[in-house]
């Protein structure tokens, strides 16, 4: 009898390795990243990747969905425990470590699938729940919107090419700490400009068939 559980566990491990490798490859090559680049960074064979996916675009589409689901899982875990500053800050720190900004450039150039769009909407809803709960508990300033939080996570989650892994981790930790301090409700400045709207954010993840001219 086939060991389906073993194969499933191996598939999950490969997904994790593939996603980590893709993030490193995109950090180096940007949206022009190739499957060979991803394979080299992940330690997997190009042939083994193409046995699962029909094209480079299919690989990138799957990885974008996987990255979104990673954020969704972290949000669900944060929502499963009582609200506190450490819960909110720990959530932001953990998702920034996923480097969501590394694949945002890829999402802008591939054909957006229904799965990508569905996952993006799910992440938005979960982020809204995390933020609302923290604001209602008096932990986070009330003028921050879910799109502000989404932008913070994406921007802080962009890799810095040229830095060593340790230097990059140190810089990111410092920026996250400064940003989190700015989200606390005590004595903050009025935010300049208008709050972000859903239009610009949604255009990245909306299925191409739903976008004029794409």
From TrEMBL:
GO terms assigned for molecular function: DNA-binding transcription factor activity; transcription cis-regulatory region binding
Keyword Membrane included in the entry's annotation: no
DNA-binding region(s) from the entry: 34-53
Domain HTH tetR-type, residue spans: 12-71
Keyword field: DNA-binding, Transcription, Transcription regulation
KW Nucleotide-binding (keyword) present: no
Coiled-coil regions listed in the entry: none
Pfam families: TetR_C_43, TetR_N
Chain segments carrying region Disordered: 185-214
Protein name according to UniProt: TetR/AcrR family transcriptional regulator
Species this chain originates from: Flexivirga aerilata
């Amino acid at each position: 009898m086939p060991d389906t559980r073993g194969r499933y566990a191996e598939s999950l491990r490969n997904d994790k390795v593939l996603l980590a490798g893709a993030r490193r490859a995109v950090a180096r090559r940007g949206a022009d990243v190739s499957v060979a680049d991803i394979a080299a960074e992940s330690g997997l064979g190009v042939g083994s990747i193409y046995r699962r996916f029909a094209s480079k675009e299919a690989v990138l589409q799957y990885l974008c969905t996987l990255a979104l689901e990673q954020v969704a899982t972290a949000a669900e875990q944060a929502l499963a425990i009582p609200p506190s500053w450490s819960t909110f800050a720990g959530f932001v720190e953990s998702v920034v470590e996923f480097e969501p900004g590394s694949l945002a450039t890829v999402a802008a150039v591939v054909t957006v699938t229904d799965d990508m769009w569905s996952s993006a909407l799910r992440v938005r809803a979960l982020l809204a729940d995390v933020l609302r709960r923290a604001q209602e508990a008096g932990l986070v300033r009330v003028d921050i919107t879910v799109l502000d939080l989404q932008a913070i996570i994406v921007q802080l989650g962009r890799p810095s090419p040229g830095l060593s892994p340790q230097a990059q981790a140190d810089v990111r930790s410092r920026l996250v700490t400064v940003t989190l301090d700015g989200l606390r409700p005590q004595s903050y400045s009025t935010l300049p400009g208008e709050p972000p709207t859903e239009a610009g954010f949604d255009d990245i993840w909306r299925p191409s068939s739903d976008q004029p001219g794409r």
